[in-house]
Amino acid sequence: MPQIAQTSLVAKFKASISEKEFAQEELRKELLEGLTAEQMKISSKFFYDSYGSTLFEWITQLPEYYPTRTEKSIIKTYSKALFGHLSHIDLVELGSGDCSKISIVLKAISPKHLPTIIYRPIDFSSSSITTAKHILNDSFPKLKIEGMVADFTQLQNLPNGQPRIICFFGSTIGNFEPHQTESLLNELSALMNTGDQLIMGMDLVKDVGILEAAYNDSQRITEAFNKNILRSCNNTLGTNFLIPDFEHIAFFNPSKSRIEMHLKALGDVIIKSPYFNGRIIIRKGETIHTENSHKYNLESIHQMAHKSGLTIQNIYSDSQNWFALVQLSK
């Protein structure tokens, strides 16, 4: 646990009075609460600043990183069955990132129906939405695009003009703790109308060597991605993290069926910020927990659907059963 040189840093957080700063203030609070927790942590949402989003795009092209290419292969194989018939719907994508997967979906939709579709990307990164919109406007000029820069875990509502298909690709659901996953799916279920669908990518349990290699690539891109979260923290909270002070660690935790990513302090580190009084002392060998990536089996998928009140329509997988695309309905 980090040593806190002054008590109740969170209580002494310097809140901004500007309404324009409200969202940024909430992010700073979240970062500070994580850094002062018994197990220090930084939410994985902070990976995805402009540079972090670029790094992740590079990761998806690495030979060791199977999830993206495997999920794309499943979407391509079953795109006609899943999306070919669509018309007059809102196509919502949570954590949209780059537009490579939704492009596969849009290509499967009949050109005559495409003008009836509204694509609604929701992402924490404004640059990702802007870039995707430019690319999709070129490829699908008749498509309506209405993006939203938001934390999709805190959605209060969804557009309600026509039926909705919510795409939650990338095994992002695996980044949440089990209780957070249950809460998120319950909230999504509550926002869905009868007949709405949720199509969710989920990474499956497999050989540990394959799992760990995907997060410890030979080119060390994942290491750079993990360490970039410190730069994102500096930009948001004004902290003084130095990237060379930390080591990237990623391993499979079998008891929790997840890959964990951490940053381990290589020496004692003193963290300061203009947004809190005092300082945070991180001792050599202590870690900051930056990401979980849970891995699932059929039993856990069915349990998850049951708890959320959603019905599994189909589970699509690849020939090696490395990844699943789960189709749920309200």
Entry summary:
The protein is an alpha/beta fold and 330 residues long. It is built from nine helices and 14 strands.
Describe this structure in words.
By secondary structure, the chain is an alpha/beta fold. The protein folds into two domains: 3-9 and 19-46 and 215-294, no CATH class; 66-206 and 300-329, Rossmann fold (3-Layer(aba) Sandwich), CATH 3.40.50.150. The chain is 34% helix and 22% strand. It has nine helices and 14 strands. The protein has helices spanning 22-35, 50-59, 66-83, 100-108, 126-139, 178-191, 208-213, 221-237, 298-308, and strands at residues 3-4, 90-94, 118-123, 144-145, 148-149, 164-168, 197-203, 246-253, 258-265, 269-271, 280-282, 287-294, 311-317, 323-329. The strands form three sheets. Strands 2, 3, 4, 5, 6, 7, 13 and 14 form an eight-stranded mixed sheet that branches. Strands 1-11-10 form a three-stranded antiparallel sheet, with no helix packed on it. It has a three-stranded antiparallel sheet with strand order 8-9-12. Helix 6 links the parallel strand 6 and strand 7. Helix 2 (50-59) runs antiparallel to helix 8 (221-237), helix 3 packs parallel to helix 4 and helix 6 (178-191) packs across helix 9. The protein starts with a strand and ends with a strand. The model is unreliable at 4-20 (pLDDT under 50).
Keywords:
three-stranded antiparallel β-sheet; alpha/beta; single chain; 14 strands; 2 domains; globular; about 325 residues; Rossmann fold
